[in-house]
TrEMBL record:
Entry annotated with the keyword Zinc: yes
UniProt protein name: Vacuolar protein sorting-associated protein 41 homolog
Protein encoded by which gene: LOC109049362
Function: Plays a role in vesicle-mediated protein trafficking to lysosomal compartments including the endocytic membrane transport pathways.
Species of provenance: Cyprinus carpio
Gene3D superfamilies: Tetratricopeptide repeat domain, YVTN repeat-like/Quinoprotein amine dehydrogenase
Length: 817
């Protein structure tokens, strides 16, 4: 199993709360044995494998776990560089004694050459496997390009010389970038032109001790790191009008900045940059410089600087003995893996995934964020479980003493796991915090054992009567044994028989248990406001006959109240209004008086009263409303009394509200009423607009359109006509849909009838001897008892079923015929 470690292997620059961006692992297995006897000098990375060169002239092919798959004895001295093409089928190797070998890993073809000087670099064409791209470059004191011609011979060209040793080379697509003692050059292999020369900044540093780092971010972006300087260069196409004798491409430096330490390697990470630093401390009191751990930083490049995203100090083996040139940084583009190579250690850095993010949050005790992250990406996490993280969060809250928050999280974390719920309840009981978890227990379709709820109710009953009453009101009575709780409440009432809260709760328990007489007795004794609701809801009128004295003390009789308030009409209105709102029928004999009271003191509630009352005399109400010129109320009463035309006329003439008129016509659904409305509106353009917008689903709009006078200006006519067409289209669609449904239903019923009539009918053997006829309706008749076939010879029908369809007595008449 792959183990990625983040603590103990690296040290963050500062003890901050920032999360690391990368995780690290040592490359072990075969690499460990190699580096015990030898030292790494270079390495290159392919998506399929790794190629490691050593100081003793050996090249090892490794899998990504570090196991050796192949070994090549190249030279007795240091391997300087290894190059692979994109397919991973060919490899180029150069060594300190001047040997250069280019060969196929799976073929016999190859190139072998010995030079009289050390060859520092070699780079294959990225598409070297293709026959037309058999090219590679080598660099010692000059840069040579090798190309295989059509005669299968290698042709050599000098691309550059005279500026010292070539220290690095990177080939991407058609561009070759190399570094020498003076600077960095880029050569375009397609146009055979050198297109730039980027001079190095830190000329006081020895180029062999602080070599240049090159890295292609993409086919046109080159990142240069030299000393403490970083430059990001972009290769661009030159405008044809500006070419003259210039190359077709040019290089623009889009970002340049200085770093705090010396650069040993560079690699891209999306739009950011991974930088390997060589760090040394020098002090006035120290004769020699002190080498510290190398750093791997992620930085964000800016046009005139950079921003540090993260910084890790790596504890690689023998870092005290290493120099800047001993470190290298290679990366795998496919998986965002970064390899830090030093003589005695190889470290792999990888972007942290969601599991690592959750690990860090849990380590920092940020359980809320960890739980949220696990819930959001539960499909992608592999090492964590949402419920286990939630349980860890609950444990943390309990340890911290935040019991209410812990109980609240139980509802989300425990979900439908009843075993976990019961375990948590008993844990809260152990720590004396049953009250905290009580309000979050499941009480719907999923429930715990009744004993759990009873245990919590008993706990509240001992210490908190108010909380006990709240639970009884909120919890369904099916959750617990009602009789056991009633008995417990009665035991407490023996000690405190006048406790109103316990008595009220006991009444509610009796109600749940359908012992309404006991509940009613308690409510009347307490003069509780819910006594009338209990009586009406459960029809307990017979139960209060022997408790009439208590009821009279509880509330005054209605007639007596009305008699006492007859001299205070405004208060009488308030009383009758409340009575009406509670029960529309209870004070029905006072509804006629209430009309005048509403008209005088509370007109806004007059119309709702007229609508809801079934005992209000309409003629009296109409007279009062007409006297006071209450138009809306008069319109309602006229329509209720059947005089819809007069009601419509009042809306149009006195209210002048076309929307109300249209709404009124819709409610009545009377064709003559619509005609009256159209006639009244035909000379009023705003009314016509309102009609066009609303009558499409009730009246044929053509009737209205034909009656509009020519030349009349109607506001928003186009929008109204568009709406009519849309309404018509909608009606057509609805009709077609209904027709399809009707046809489908008819077919289904026909098939059902056909299947039913095809079924056989069981008849006794004796029936056959008496000449019995059996119909599909399962009625049986003797042949001589059947009526004559009628007009259609040979067709008989069941006399009973036919009589049911034609009405009472028709069967007897038929028999007489």
């Amino acid at each position: 199993k792959e183990e990625w470690v983040c603590l103990g292997f690296f040290v963050q620059e500062e003890d901050t709360e920032e999360e690391p961006k990368l995780k690290y692992e040592r490359l072990t297995n075969g690499v460990t044995e190699i580096l015990q006897k030898d030292a790494a000098s270079c390495m290159t990375v392919h998506d399929k494998f790794l190629a490691l060169g050593t100081h003793f002239g050996k090249v090892y092919l490794l899998d990504i776990q570090g196991n050796v798959t192949q070994k090549f004895e190249i030279s007795p001295v240091k391997i300087n560089q290894i190059s692979l093409d994109e397919s991973g089928d060919h490899v180029g190797i150069c060594s300190e004694d001047g040997k250069v070998q280019v060969f196929g890993l799976y073929t016999r073809e190859g190139f072998h050459e010995n030079f009289d000087c050390p060859i520092k670099v070699v780079a294959l064409h990225p598409q070297f496997s293709k026959s037309n791209n058999k090219q590679f470059v080598t660099g010692g004191n000059k840069l040579l390009l090798y190309e295989r011609n059509w005669l299968n011979r290698w042709k050599t060209s000098v691309l550059h010389e005279g500026e010292g040793n070539i220290t690095n080379v990177k080939w991407r697509a058609n561009l070759i970038a190399w570094a020498n003692n003076v600077g960095v050059k880029i050569y375009d292999i397609s146009s055979k032109q050198r297109i730039t020369n980027v001079l190095r900044d830190n000329t006081n540093l020895r180029p062999d001790m602080y070599p240049c780092s090159l890295c292609w971010k993409d086919n046109t972006t080159l990142i240069i790191g030299w000393g403490s300087s970083v430059k990001i260069c972009v290769v661009k196409e030159r405008d044809p009008t500006e070419m003259r004798d210039l190359p077709s491409r040019y290089v623009e430096i889009v970002s340049a900045f200085e770093t705090e330490f010396f650069i040993s390697g560079l690699a891209p990470l999306a739009d950011q940059l991974v930088t390997l630093y060589y760090v040394k401390d020098s002090s006035e009191h120290m004769e020699e410089e002190f080498r510290t751990r190398p750093r791997l930083d992620i930085i964000q490049s800016l046009p005139e600087g950079c921003e540090e995203i993260s910084s890790d100090a790596l504890t690689v083996r023998n870092f005290q003995e290493n120099q800047c040139r001993d470190y290298r940084l290679e990366h795998s583009e496919g998986e965002s893996l970064f390899y830090i190579i030093s003589p005695k250690d190889i470290v792999v850095a990888k972007e942290r995934d969601q599991d690592d993010h959750i690990d860090w949050l849990l380590e920092k005790k940020k359980y809320e964020e960890a739980l949220m992250a696990a819930e959001i990406s539960f499909r992608n996490i592999k090492r964590h479980d949402v419920q286990k993280i939630g349980m860890a969060y609950i444990n943390h809250l309990v340890e911290r003493g935040d019991y209410d928050a812990a109980a609240r999280k139980c509802q989300k974390v425990l979900g439908k796991n009843m075993d976990l719920w019961e375990n948590e309840v008993y844990r809260f009981k152990t720590i004396g915090q049953l009250k905290a978890i009580s309000q979050y227990l499941p009480r719907g379709d999923l429930r715990l054992r009744p004993a759990i709820y009873e245990m919590i109710l008993h706990e509240f009953l001992k210490t908190d009567y108010e909380g006990f009453a709240t639970l009884i009101r909120e919890w369904p009575g099916e959750l617990y044994n009602n009789m056991a709780i009633v008995q417990a409440v009665n035991e407490h009432l023996k000690k405190d028989p006048t406790n109103s809260m316990l008595l009220t709760t006991l009444a509610e328990l009796y109600t749940y248990d359908q012992r309404y007489d006991r509940a009613l007795e308690i409510y009347l004794k307490l003069r509780h406001k819910d006594v009338y609701q209990l009586i009406h809801k459960h029809n307990l009128f017979s139960a209060i006959k022997d408790k009439i004295v208590l009821l009279m003390d509880f509330d005054k009789e209605m007639d007596k109240v009305v008699e006492e308030l007859k001299d205070r009409p405004e208060l009488l209105h308030v009383y009758l209004h409340k009575l009406f709102k509670r029960d529309h029928h209870k004070g029905q004999k006072y509804h006629e008086r209430q009309i005048s009271l509403y008209a005088e003191y509370d007109r806004p509630n007059l119309l709702p009263f007229l609508r809801e009352s079934m005992h209000c005399p309409l003629e009296k109400a109409l007279e009062i409303c007409q006297q006071r010129h209450f138009v809306e109320e008069t319109v309602f009463l006229l329509s209720r009394m059947g005089n819809c035309r007069r009601a419509l006329q009042m809306i149009m003439e006195e209210l002048a509200d076309v929307d109300k008129a249209i709404e009124f016509a819709k409610e009545q659904d009377d064709r003559e009423l619509w005609d009256d409305l159209i006639s009244y509106s035909i000379d009023k353009p705003p009314f016509i607009t309102g009609l066009l917008n609303n009558i499409g689903t009730h009246v044929d709009p053509i009737l209205l359109i034909h009656r509009i006078k020519e030349g009349m200006e109607i506001p928003n006519l186009r929008d109204s006509l568009v709406k009519i067409l849309q309404d018509y289209n909608l009606q057509i669609l609805l009709r077609e849909g209904c027709k399809k449904i009707l046809v489908a239903d008819s077919l289904s019923l026909l098939q059902r009838m056909h299947r039913t009539q095809k079924r056989g009918v069981r008849v006794d053997d004796t029936a056959q001897a008496f000449g019995v006829v059996v119909f599909h309706c399962r009625h049986m008749f003797h042949k001589e008892c059947l009526p004559s076939p009628g007009n259609v010879p040979g067709i008989q029908y069941c006399n009973i079923c036919s009589a049911k369809r034609r009405g009472p007595g028709s069967g007897i008449l038929e028999m007489k015929k």
